[in-house]
Amino acid sequence: MLQYQDKIQAIAARLLKECxxxxxxxxxxxxxxxxxxxxxxxxxxxxxxxxxDSHCGINLTNYLTDRxxxxxxxxxxxxxxxxxxxxxxxKIERDQLYIIGVPCQGMVDKRKIAQAxxxxxxxxxxxxxxxxxxxxxxxxxxxxxxxxxxxxxxxxHRNPTIHDEMVAEPVAEQTDIDAYESVRAIExxxxxxxxxxxxxxxxxxxxxxxxxxxxxxxxxxxCFVDEHRPQWVGKSTDPVDNMTFHFLRAYHCAxxxxxxxxxxxxxxxxxxxxxxxxxxEKDCLELxxxxxxxxxxxxxxxxxxxxxxPDDFIK
Amino acid sequence: xxxxxxxxSQWAAGIAKLKDAYRVWSPVRENDYHVFKELNKxxxxxxxxxxxxLSAKQAIYPQTQKMFEYTLDxxxxxxHIMHExxxxxxxxxxxxxxxxxxxxxxxxxxxxxxxxxKDPYWVKAxxxxxxxxxxxxxxxxxCFCTSAGGGPFDEKGLDVLLVxxxxxxxxxxxxxxxxxxxxxxxxxxxxxAAGAQVxxxxxxxxxxxxxxxxxxxxxxxxQETLTLYDAPFWEEVAFACINCGTCTYLCPTCWCFDIQxxxxxxxxxxxxxxxxxxxxxxxxxxxxxxxxxTKIHRVRQRFMHKLKYFVDKYDDGIQCTGCGRCVRACxxxxxIRNVCNQMNRFGTCPA
Lengths: 315, 351
Ligand code: SF4
Ligand code: SF4
Ligand code: SF4
Ligand code: SF4
What we know:
The complex is a heterodimer of chains A (315) and B (351). Chain A has helices at 2-17, 77-88, 110-116, 150-153, 181-187, 191-202, 210-214, 239-252, 262-266, 274-288; strands at 23-32, 35-41, 50-51, 71-75, 97-101, 123-127, 130-135, 138-143, 165-166. Chain A has 315 residues and is α/β, with parallel strands linked by helices. In chain A, strands 1, 2, 3, 4, 5 and 9 form a 6-stranded mixed beta sheet that branches. Chain A has a 3-stranded antiparallel beta sheet with strand order 6-7-8, with no helix packed on it. In chain A, a hairpin with a 2-residue loop joins strand 1 (23-32) and strand 2 (35-41). The model of chain A has no long low-confidence stretch (mean pLDDT 95). The model of chain B has no long low-confidence stretch (mean pLDDT 96). The longest helix of chain B has 20 residues, at 295-314. Chain B has a 7-stranded mixed beta sheet with strand order 1-9-8-7-6-2-3, with helices on both faces. A 4-stranded antiparallel beta sheet of chain B has the order 5-4-11-10, with no helix packed on it. The chains are: A alpha/beta (315), B alpha/beta (351). The site of one iron/sulfur cluster (SF4) has 13 residues of chain B, from helix 10.
């Protein structure tokens, strides 16, 4: 990971020096363990602030929306897929971007790390596949695979699908992954059990919208929950309103979500919100053979119509 | 005032007894964090926590508060007439609140309980609440209460301060409300006050020394408001922010709300819900104009309010008690400590 960092800094410095881009979007070291801050370097000197480690789980595509400059952006696999989606949806132009591709080895789940030491974490040190956690309760070393974000354990596109320059050779993609076990478990429930499951899942939701705002797909100028003339969704944390928000948001992400996990990572109360988008991802794969963000050459399934569409009710 | 000794063996029975006279709120573990909940009959406080994910403000200022009820059923004589929602407040105790959260009520009070304006919901609930604090023997690395006007053993705003000492609590009685509560719980074993204070002082010194992060606030008042408002650093501060409600909803001192009507069938309620200066809708005018229509405007507002406007208006410190929640929970690591220090030193000679 450290080699990645040197390479990211070198590429970013070169791009800025040569005036190939106006700014480079990456991460800088956070002030608390496991929390890096999305950062924009505008001069070659500032590129020494750019870092890379296993805590870069926020999706940087979120910072591209409607920008007009020429931009260098550091992109891991899922970020690159959201960049593709952004380009397809006209939220940024391909030739505005210089994509610094990072072959990703997975991001670490800060909650699993905290659980491993039962509470406070003072420092997290990475050494290849080993992660050493230092906390007031003592040190502990864990294997990275055991503390990955769930979406990273299930990821099949660790290498960027689009890039202008890579910081390293591609990594091996994970195979033999059953990505939809959790979805099937819910599909198998009867309707009452499903409702009870969702109510319980969303009970702690405080409607802070960190999940929505961390998501690069959620760029609508006015989100449906913010519509107020007339108002579409109630503002309290009533269970029905909470469900309405989450279900509808998930539908809006159908065929677009890359399972980057930024939403789940951002939630202050640890709600596993990906369960909703995962279901729609599964449907898109099964119905249309579609995975989001793999190529600039195909339109997403929900914004095209094909005459040979098997659903003959659409005429 | 006196100090009472509570043996751990007396604790459960005392809490049970307390529930006869009070609604009892305390931290409980939920998933992998603690939150304040109203305890049901058999539940016990879980005081094995550093701090709760959400602050204790919801015990007095719930996220949703029903204010009025009405009917739209025109066959009823009182249709379209607002009735006050039934008063559901009663004596309540918040057990295990940290000193930073208790101090926050005193800051919030400056807004909700003034000589001219009294927010009836907040004032009534606050008056009926007894705050039993739990001193922080082991503050977290993100706590900075000692430079935000408080401390891990700070007594301000509390009725009782509990100090965990080996297998007992030393309960320092701070107000009559506090004495009444301990009485109701049947905690009566008076400690030798001087001896107890020596123990408490020793633990306090250790805790104070364990706070390893701080902010500087001495220049905030002297800064020229508009110059600070126009400072170039806001753009960098705001870049990463995703304008979510995490920081404001978790904060014990954020007080903003929005009033909403909701109707189901013929039955309507008027309620107020927490709102956040980070949301664009917060300032959207009826005309469609939004005076804070960019992210920078909104981010700057949160920090200027807490660290400048509040300072100027009340001349009594900042609107932050240093609980560190926003520092820990912000998904993109916007750290109020850094922002405060930047604001404080802005324009001063770097040497
Ligand atoms: S919904 Fe969540 S996982 Fe999907 S793209 Fe948005 S942030 Fe990423
Ligand atoms: S981030 Fe979590 S608490 Fe906030 S709205 Fe999303 S699910 Fe709810
Ligand atoms: S500072 Fe952090 S927690 Fe607050 S609105 Fe911005 S991103 Fe959300
Ligand atoms: S601003 Fe942050 S540190 Fe200060 S009281 Fe609010 S949540 Fe706590």
